Amino acid sequence: MSDITTTPNDRFEMTELNREASMGGLGTETTDREIRRISLADFETRRDQIADELWAAATDIGFFQVIDHGIDMDAVNHAFAMSAKFFELPREVKEQLPLKKGQNAGWEYSSQVRPSVGTPDQKGSYQLTLPRMDGLWPTDDELAGFRATLLDFERRCWRLAMDILGCFAEKLGFDRDFFTRAHDPSVDTYQSTLRLLHYYAFPDALIDEPNVWRAGAHTDFDALTLLFQRTGQGGLQVLPGAEAASEAWTPVEPSDEAITCNIGDMLMRWSDDRLPSNFHRVRAPRRGEYTGPRYTIAYFAQANTDAVIESAAGKYPQITGGDYIAQRIAANFGK
Question: How far is it, in rounded angstroms, from Cα 136 to Cα 145?
Fold first, then answer.
């Protein structure tokens, strides 16, 4: 990791640890702010209109949902089925595929502690980062078809993310393929990640306990996140910047056909803060709500480790994608 240059952007530099811990993420107020749904149907012929809609939603709240996105529902359902089968594997099998520190690859179990709450997220995950997967796949005897399914799904997510980022590129004054070149999956510096998430079934005894979260308040480190959710398995909330002082959170309703997208810290910096990366969390179920397991699949588009992040107006100094992720980890977790 190279030397880090501190900048005035205190939300996303070394002061983030204090910022996130102090805001707590514990507010219970909610809003009825709209999470916009944007159709990507006829993408090439409607590209300008779609880009306008994406930009309006992203600059307003940093979150939006896309439908008619071109990822076949059979592929989505198959990926979720494989995810459930993976998490059902015996623990001794999954323990042979441990998360590699700093690599975003492998399996982890209740190990992520958010500074905002100081307690482990009530979830486990399996992370796929293409160049870092040696020795981290279950065998076909353990889970037939898992590797092929995830590699296919990762590629579909990459293509969709590049289409969306291409719209943002043109809005920022870059050429259409600017972000595609920065997220090149054909080289060893690729660091975008597909993450399978399993939030555990929630025991009745924990429902009324304070400071228990499926995922504590945080921002994403990447450029763009695609999140696949299942209808009825809710809990995701976002804290728009306009509501930050009062901690009024906006629910993001899940559905099988819609992909929830959000701007990450990397794209916020790349856009000179025009595109906001906002805090979000997954709250615990309340009495009378669904308390079974919650499964999601997230794709985090992160610029290659050697890609240079240079904002359009030069508000922030240049930094590579690898150094930026390392900087964000240090800012969030102090290591």
Answer: 15
Residue located via tokens 């009062």 = 246
Cα distances (angstroms) measured from residue 178 to each of 2, 79, 185, 295: 25, 29, 14, 33
- 214's CB contacts (< 8 A; 6+ apart) are 121, 122, 123, 199, 202, 235, 282, 283, 284, 294
Distance CA 294, CA 107 (A): 17
Residue 232 CA, distance from chain mean position:
20
Report yes or no on whether pTM surpasses 0.70.
yes
Residue 95: which of 82, 108, 85 has the closest Cα? 108
Residues 105-162 pLDDT 10s: 999 986 444 444 445 556 889 999 999 999 999 999 999 999 999 999 999 999 999 9
Helix extents (H) in 256-320: 265-270
CA 312 to chain centre: 23
Alpha-carbon distance of 218 to 240, in angstroms, equals 12
Task: Find the farthest-apart pair of alpha carbons in the chain and give their distance in angstroms, rounded.
Answer: 54
Q: Which residues contact 224 (CB under 8 A, 6 or more apart)?
A: 161, 164, 165, 168, 261, 262, 263, 264, 267, 300, 301
Cα separations (Å) of 53 from 125, 184, 256? Answer: 32, 26, 21
